[in-house]
Amino acid sequence: EDRTVELRLGGRETTLPGLQYLLHVAMPNFYFHVTTAYDILRHNGVPLGKQTFLGNR
Q1: What b/e string do you get for 8-35 counting C-beta neighbours within 10 Å, with b at 16 or more?
Q2: How many domains does the chain have?
Q3: pTM of the model
Q4: CA-closest candidate to residue 16, choices 27, 31, 3
Q5: If DSSP codes are grouped into helix, strand and coil, which group holds residue 13?
Q6: Residues 7-16: what's their mean pLDDT?
């Protein structure tokens, strides 16, 4: 929470608190790519279901 993250967005540099970066940049980006990979695999006929997506519990 105390650390900051410096990044370049749209050609300009910005600094975000670590928690804000995690919640508003890193996690949405991660879940977007996981969901997109899942969708591409399903589209190409890979037999994936909800349990495959969630993993073993």
Answers
A1: eeeeeeeebeeeebeeeeeeeeeeeeee
A2: 1
A3: 0.72
A4: 3
A5: strand
A6: 92
